[in-house]
Design a protein that fits this description.
Elements: E1 14-17, E2 23-30, E3 33-41, E4 47-54, E5 57-65, E6 71-76, E7 81-85, E8 91-98, E9 101-104
Antiparallel strand pairs: 1-2, 2-3, 3-4, 4-5, 5-6, 6-7, 7-8, 8-9
Amino acid sequence: MRAPESLGLGSRTHANYTDDNDLDGVGGFSNGKENGKWIYYHSNSEKSAEGVYNNGVKKGAWNYYTDEGILNSTEDEDTGEITRWYPEGGKEYNYFVTNGGLKVI
């Protein structure tokens, strides 16, 4: 499949579909695993999440959205930092998840 260049997914992409044939997500696929940028969608076609995989493992910052397409949270898979956003913008709270538990900022 070739995705629109505006999505920033590269020239070769893979698409996942739900049991109802709704688009679930699109992104890179290599050696049977997600690789590169992926974008996931709610059943109403609004973006639900976006981020990067490296050999099937989430890496770096991932953004999560409400079913209205509003940024809800940002999670950094490398540092464990999680930020929750108010619907109208602005930081609601921020913390880190570590092996030792939570560290609220």
